[in-house]
Task: inverse folding
């Protein structure tokens, strides 16, 4: 499968990545080459094969639903790009 | 080999340094100062370290010396190591080789870091790596490429290229790495080291920045199998904070190191010796297999028929998981944020575009595409089915043999810049290592010779949780050969 500039733009939007116009052709070329490599899977009939999500086929372990971590808000906010009064600041969402 | 007493301190293995510390021949502080001086002297030509943690190292070294005086030392107490910059280190920048995390000071320690600290190791610094562990040459780092100590024109491999170069140049006796598709074994091979990727779930992933969560696994890189056994013993074990960590006791990896190899059944997958394998690498690997025959092993040809599907399946599964994992980098809570965002979407898209390099961007895009509406079955589900077929190949092989052996990488280290513009060619460097991650099996690379002045690695693949067997098989070889003891001339 080969991807054109419009498709790259659509995927970049899904992935929330601002790709510069001048870089789109190179990404289209490389992504198409990767998908061509990936397409070698199509030569194999996998009907009835159970998909493998975990190498040891283990189930995800769950823990008891109780608080296990202490609050460290100030520590974590010390590395945030912008905070004020204990809140993370982002551009205005609602006009 | 020279007798131990005549071996320069930086040439000693971890096991030898441990013995020296125990005998009181030198202190951890002396040892640590020596390696910090070597880093200062040699790192500018290699770029193996992103951050050198002098103050922490000296503080930990003095604490280790006190612990030894109080008779509370273990075998690793006072031994300097380096941490791949993918492991979170409390109060120290943890960049993951990315501009995105250039100013990220981790607020906690990864479990691997905690465990090594508890064993008394001394952290010299954080090593360079391909951005978010995506790469096979260490050329994808925001902090610039790493050079191979054996030949400064060559790449060290990747993604744990900084760890590999640092150990090979004797800037540290050991280091941590992580391996999602070969990122411990391939750089170990290209730099002439021993490195082991444990069974998935053996080493905690907590605090290890995620790339592809169903494949990522941390492990040690050092000069010998014995040193890897010492480090892995400290790193491995159950961690309730990692939901994929396996609750199984950690064996004493040193206990079985010396076991004889008489009757050991080694399988050579015919698919690993075909087209694409460099002829000179093949000759070196054949010589290593001949050595194993002399050690009493029975060598038989086996088949892993779906081998050629490993790279295609990997380049769906790994990007899909990476696009999910890296969605957390949104410029809001930590990491890079763009200047003057005009709205929230602009904040997300520009922060991410500025923070990620081209290879990471490519993999996020491939993953986002594979997981997008209408394509999931054709790509992600299909890749997971192929993954099952690959895993079944190994399961059948291990009914016949104890370990599988072959080349770690199809070529020796390539030149800087040689493959950087062609992602597909770069991906093929991991053709023999990727299937091991898909199956979740342990794999080890050990040095078995050279082509010119560039090292060749032999890969040993074991059954689930057979790390002790792999270390044993590598150790016995290292008792009768000295490839692991060779040092690059410029750093001897």
Result:
């Amino acid at each position: 499968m080969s991807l054109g500039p419009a498709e790259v733009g659509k995927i970049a939007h899904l992935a929330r990545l601002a790709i510069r116009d001048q870089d789109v052709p190179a990404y289209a070329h490389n992504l198409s080459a990767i998908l061509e490599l990936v397409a070698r899977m199509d030569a194999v009939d996998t009907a009835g094969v159970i998909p493998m999500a975990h190498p040891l086929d283990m189930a995800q372990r769950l823990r008891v639903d109780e608080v296990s971590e202490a609050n460290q808000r100030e520590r974590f906010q010390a590395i945030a790009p912008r905070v004020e009064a204990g809140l993370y600041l982002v551009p205005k969402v609602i006009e | 080999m020279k007798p131990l007493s005549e071996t320069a301190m930086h040439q000693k293995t971890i096991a030898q340094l441990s013995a020296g510390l125990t005998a009181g021949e030198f202190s951890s502080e002396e040892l640590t100062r020596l390696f910090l001086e070597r880093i200062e002297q040699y790192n500018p030509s290699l770029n193996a370290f992103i951050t050198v943690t002098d103050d922490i190292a000296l503080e930990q070294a003095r604490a280790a010396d006190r612990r030894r005086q109080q008779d509370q030392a273990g075998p690793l107490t006072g031994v300097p190591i380096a941490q791949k910059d993918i492991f979170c280190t409390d109060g120290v920048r943890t960049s993951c080789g990315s501009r995105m995390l250039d100013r990220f000071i981790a607020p906690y320690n990864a479990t691997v870091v905690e465990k090594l600290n508890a064993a008394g190791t001394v952290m010299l610094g954080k090593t360079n790596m391909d951005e978010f562990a995506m790469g096979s040459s260490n050329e994808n780092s925001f902090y610039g490429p790493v050079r191979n100590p054996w030949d400064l024109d060559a790449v060290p491999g990747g993604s744990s290229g900084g760890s590999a170069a640092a150990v090979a140049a004797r800037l540290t006796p050991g280091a941590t790495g992580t391996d999602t598709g070969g990122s411990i074994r391939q750089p170990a091979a290209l730099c002439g080291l021993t490195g082991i990727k444990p069974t998935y779930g053996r080493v905690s992933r907590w605090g290890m920045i995620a790339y592809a969560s169903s494949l990522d696994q941390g492990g040690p890189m050092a000069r010998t199998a014995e040193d890897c056994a010492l480090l892995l013993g400290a790193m491995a074990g159950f961690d309730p904070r990692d939901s994929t960590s396996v609750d199984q006791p950690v064996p004493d990896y040193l206990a079985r190191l010396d076991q004889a190899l008489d009757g050991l059944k080694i399988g050579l997958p015919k698919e690993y010796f075909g087209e694409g394998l460099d002829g000179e690498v093949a000759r070196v690997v054949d010589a290593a297999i001949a050595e194993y025959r002399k050690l009493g092993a029975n060598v038989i040809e086996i088949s892993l028929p779906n081998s050629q599907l490993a790279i295609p399946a990997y380049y769906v599964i790994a990007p899909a998981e990476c696009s999910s994992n890296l969605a957390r980098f949104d410029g809001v809570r930590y990491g890079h944020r763009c200047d003057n965002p005009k709205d929230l979407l602009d904040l997300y898209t520009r922060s991410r575009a500025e923070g990620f390099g081209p290879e990471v961007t490519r993999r996020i895009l491939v993953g986002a595409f594979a997981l997008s509406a209408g394509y999931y079955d054709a790509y992600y589900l299909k890749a997971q089915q192929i993954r099952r077929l690959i895993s079944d190949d190994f399961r059948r092989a291990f009914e016949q043999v104890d370990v599988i052996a072959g080349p770690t990488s199809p070529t020796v280290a390539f030149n800087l810049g040689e493959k950087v513009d062609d992602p597909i060619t770069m991906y093929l460097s991991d053709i023999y290592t990727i299937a091991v991650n898909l199956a979740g099996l342990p794999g080890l690379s050990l040095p078995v010779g050279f082509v010119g002045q560039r090292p060749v690695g032999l890969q040993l693949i074991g059954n689930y949780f057979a790390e002790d067997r792999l270390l044993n098989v590598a150790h016995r070889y290292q008792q009768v050969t000295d490839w692991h003891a060779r040092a690059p001339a410029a750093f001897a």
About this structure: Chain A touches chain B through 53 residues (CB under 8 Å).
